[in-house]
Amino acid sequence: MTLSYLLTGVLDDCLCDIESIDDFNTFKIFPKIQKLQERDYFRYYKVNLKRPCPFWADDGHCSIKDCHVEPCPESKIPVGIKAGSSNKYSKAANNSKELEDCEQANKLGAVNSTLSNQSKEAFIDWARYDDSQDHFCELDDERSPDAQYVDLLLNPERYTGYKGPSAWRVWNSIYEENCFKPRSVYRPLNPLAPSRGESFYTWLEGLCLEKRVFYKLISGLHASINLHLCANYLLEETWGKPRWGPNMKEFTRRFDPIETKGEGPRRLKNLYFLYLIELRALSKVAPYFERSVVDLYTGNGHEDAESKALLLEIFRDTKSFRMHFDEKSMFAGDKKGAKSLKEEFRLHFKNISRIMDCVGCDKCRLWGKLQTQGLGTALKILFSEKEIQNLPENSPSKGFQLTRQEIVALVNAFGSWDNVCSLTSAGDLCYVIVYA
Q: Which cysteines are joined by disulfide bonds (predicted)?
């Protein structure tokens, strides 16, 4: 069974077509990014999953409608998850099906924090090395006692059962309170409201380029997360062994043009736009990594050298792409107005990164924070072209610096797009042919 349409044509606000992106990604980028993600430097991401939501009380994992949330009984908590953590269920979940759904969401959303003693010792050495570098900014969150390294290979982005009011409130807050638009203009989170949706897009098209770009990036991020859910769905679980795979029904519900009243293809095109932005950032940041003073340090000199060589090879490939997004078209008005708009752009995005601490499912929060930081790092690169060009060859930089976490997030966020293509494709076209 296949979708009845192909996503083709030129993307808005750039001179790039979907077919060119598909071909370039499939034959140039994907195999190398996949290898890079398996290396120690890029597979371990340090994240604080215990930061409280700064905007509202945490809803927890439970997906039951209108439920009151409290900690799960200790006997119901999966091995390795302590009582009192963010695993929650509802008093209102008083029948077996509701309780089963809630407990499944808890189990699937739990982060596998298994690390070898050798890895833990290596992280101490990594921290010493990173502390000796001249950082662009101090990130207190990474130094928090609650921050921990997570093995991304043990925690792939996929279906967790996290849904309902908690998930809806996160995305509604992002779109309604942080995208550039009057509050009277409704963002069609509900695809069954076509007339209101059309008014939204009519208004969106009248925005300046920068504000349209902002919306498309957030929509693309949302599409990426939903595609991972559809592509790596829990199909069945027998004898405690889950089977994962593409869920055509779920994909159709979220992206089919008929089911979504035309909204689905817009979401997919915005995902391509997100790819272009991150691809452009990789091509622009190459001079930073080409310097001999920059290492991808893990303590294994041979592996570190191979990792850097592979990364530089990917940079060379990204430079060969002929249809890059032109970031110079952004913030190109009068200097005072452009500076003010850029700061507003930055603050809106920063606020969205804070909202990710309101995601009730640990695994969803992990990937939400990683993808958001990866995109934020891409934007930081695109807005720092002069600083990157003026970097000293043999000494730490003062004007531009990337932390280990920003580098890991950037590569894995970009690789997240590649991986969802490989999960949902029957051929070399991304998520337009999905087998059920």
A: 62-67, 361-364
The three-point CA angle 69-71-72 to 5° equals 110
For residue 219, what is the enclosing H or E element?
Answer: helix 209-231
Sequence-separated (6 or more) residues with CB below 8 Å from residue 60: 69, 86, 87, 88, 89, 166, 360
Q: Indicate which residues carry an active-site annotation.
A: 361, 364
114 is in an annotated binding site: no
∠ CA(124), CA(407), CA(49), 5° rounding?
65
Whether the CB-CB separation of 63 and 101 falls below 8 Å is answered with yes
Q: Is the pLDDT of residue 350 over 60?
A: yes
pLDDT the model gives residue 103: 53
As to burial, measured by CB atoms within 10 angstroms (0-12 exposed, 13-18 middle, 19+ buried), residue 412 is buried
Q: Is 171 annotated as a binding residue?
A: yes
What band does 121 get if pLDDT is binned at 50, 70 and 90?
A: low
Contact at 8 Å (CB) between 278 and 375?
yes
| Contact call for residues 111 and 363 (beta carbons, < 8 A) | yes
Q: Is 135 annotated as a binding residue?
A: no
Q: What does each C-alpha distance from 159 to 89, 231, 344 come to in angstroms?
A: 18, 9, 34
Neighbours of 210 (CB within 10 A): 18
Is residue 254 a known part of a binding site?
A: yes
How far is residue 221's CA from residue 131's CA, in Å, rounded to a whole number?
31
Per domain, the residue ranges of the chain are: 18-49+114-424, 69-108
Q: What is d(CA 177, CA 348) in angstroms, rounded to the nearest whole number?
A: 9
Which residue type does 413 have?
Answer: A
